[in-house]
Sequence to fold (320 residues):
Amino acid sequence: MKPSFRWFALALLAACASPSHPVPVYEASDEPPPPPPPEPTEGAEVTPPPRPVEAVREPFLYAVRSAEGAPPSLIFATLTSGVSFDQAFPAHRLDLLDQARVVYVALDPTTPEPEAVQRALQLRRGSAADLFPARVWHALTEELRLVTPVEQLRGARPFYSVMALERARREGLEQDAPEPMETTFVRYVIERGRELQSFDTVVADLQLLGTVPDSQFVALGTRMVDDRQGTDHRLTAMRQAYLDGDELQISQLLDDPEVRRLAPALVRTLARRRAEWLTKMRREIEQGTAFFALDVAHVLGNEGLLAKLREAGFTVERLE
Fold:
């Protein structure tokens, strides 16, 4: 999943052949491999590796309290890529995570069955090439051909193409990006032997995306192809706003009227999912000392989980 949990599942489609969509065999290129970089000569100045980006200016860590007076629970808003867990989570607050009664993430981090993933992703009939406008399909496959087999794109639901394209764009913009934050977060929790719960499984997540009409993901993919500059700007602006700790800027980026126009069913589906999560969250918060690590897109914004918790009467405080 992104390349964290969900993207790992999606990558299984490209890695596992199926009778109708086998993994293609690529011919070897006739071009010679590029020469290795020259060894530095003695006394020559060696360029040092780039310094890591400084820590997030104001962490996206929130204490949530119920009216009943239970000990506070915590919500940590993560970012898909481009920022490490060490940068995002304040070291002096790790004891709050270590002492949590239970820790929740969005998706079950265990590896799903490849066959179940393929069933969730597979286009029931026809080809994805017939769903996208021809010019969009050509541009999309040209951009992804070095990382995703075209035959797998043909056989997968359009949301797979859109997610693969967004991942490729992120990787192009985030050179030397750190390991995904949610991956390192889960590793941290497991290494300390803490109980880890999840709201959904990877397969259930993919099945949920599959309930949205293919035409709406085609519209989102077309936007990404036609508005490359705008897409890149939104991705880089989100990362920078996260590093700056700018809650308002992130909320504005999440409130994208064009997404609501192009994919209203997706917006409604994600809202229903958050409502289901909220029911579990409220029960855990009323017991106290629960910890939730969820993508910032679910946490912030007018329809995010923090706003819904405030509406329900919980007290939310951002921690330094």
Observations:
- Confidence is low (pLDDT under 50) at residues 12-34, 44-52.
